[in-house]
Amino acid sequence: MRFSGAIAAALLAAGVVGAAEIPQAERRSGYDFMKPDTKAMQDEDTANPGMLWVLDGEALWKRKAGGADKACADCHDDARTSMKGVAARYPAFDKTTGRPLDLEQRINSCRTNQQQATPLPFESRELLALTAFIARQSQGAPIETGADPQLAPFIAKGRELYMQRQGQLNLACANCHDDNWDKKLAGAAITQAHPTGYPLYRLEWQSLGSLQRRLRACISGIRAQAYDHGAPELVELELYLMSRARRMVMEAPGVRP
Amino acid sequence: MARSRIHIGIWLAGVAVAAPCPASAQALQPYAVVGDAIPEPLTNTRGDATRGRALVVERSSTCILCHNGPFPEQKFQGDLAPDLSGSGSRWSEGQLRLRLVDASRLNPATIMPSYYRLDGLNRVGTPWRGRPILSAEQIEDIVAYLVTLRE
């Protein structure tokens, strides 16, 4: 007892918060915190603005591109079968780089290596569309990210970052999302930060956005230095959050206020 | 697809603007902690309670992200922290000053940021680096306002 108290004190001094993880039975999607009309907007395909990106993505899936003049469909056929459950396992370990890749990076590695095309910029309409289309094929599937043991050290790094106080406001992700998820920050529900719905449509953004966009917003929210899109730290955070949400159900494209 | 816009506002709207902060990179005023208080003001001139109230309700000061209080005109207030109503009857001016300057001295696990501190921070973003969240003058204005909150 005294021993663990001493550890907690040492961690505190290092700016690491010792938050308790949210038990499986209490895990709640950001969806649960929304008003009924926003929930309805996510639930109905005809009302969900994210479906416009999904439709665009379906067209891009079939369009030939790059020096190889190949479409995604030329290698992967019908996404409805080949991409089922895939997004629910991302970020995933990439043997070539020896690191985790998120879904956007995987799409771009296919573009570069298989299609011989230029990578799509982060947050571009095309990359969001392809990501949304692929993620949609996992709607309703349980998240399985992190099962590969090679990911363990990267999950640990993401967790460390999540627990680390940072920025001028000196807050850790865990201070809000583990310790205060039932509360409100200036009227906004804090939520448990489970990335079940990405890419998702935010009313505030008036657009679809990636999980990295969301993470960068929270990081500059606490007035810390935001990592660049694609930075290893952001992928590690995505990986930790997805593995933390294991067995929760995929709902992309989600809608959030 | 037309629907009611639920606009909650960006929770830290001050961010993108990175307003030219009066507390530009400069050394902090020295202060003395006595017990759980900083009895002496950080500035030579007294704080102004009217300016202090305006600062407390302004989002870029960050107070009402977490706190609520007697601000009926503010629709969006936080509930992560105690209601500021009655602060002036619970705490002396000096106690309030230390709570603003560096609440972590009183409770190392607090989530309340230290508004007048530069050390011990990690990965501060460029627009905010090397300056405290609030200037000494702003702290004094806010303290002057908080002591008026008697009920």
UniProtKB/TrEMBL annotation, chain A:
Residues 56-143, 157-250 form the Cytochrome c domain. It catalyses: S-sulfanyl-L-cysteinyl-[SoxY protein] + thiosulfate + 2 Fe(III)-[cytochrome c] = S-(2-sulfodisulfanyl)-L-cysteinyl-[SoxY protein] + 2 Fe(II)-[cytochrome c] + 2 H(+); L-cysteinyl-[SoxY protein] + thiosulfate + 2 Fe(III)-[cytochrome c] = S-sulfosulfanyl-L-cysteinyl-[SoxY protein] + 2 Fe(II)-[cytochrome c] + 2 H(+). Heme c 1 binds at residues 72, 75-76, 110. Residues 1-19 form the signal peptide. Transmembrane segments: none annotated. Heterodimer of SoxA and SoxX. This is SoxAX cytochrome complex subunit A. The lineage of its organism: Bacteria, Pseudomonadati, Pseudomonadota, Alphaproteobacteria, Hyphomicrobiales.
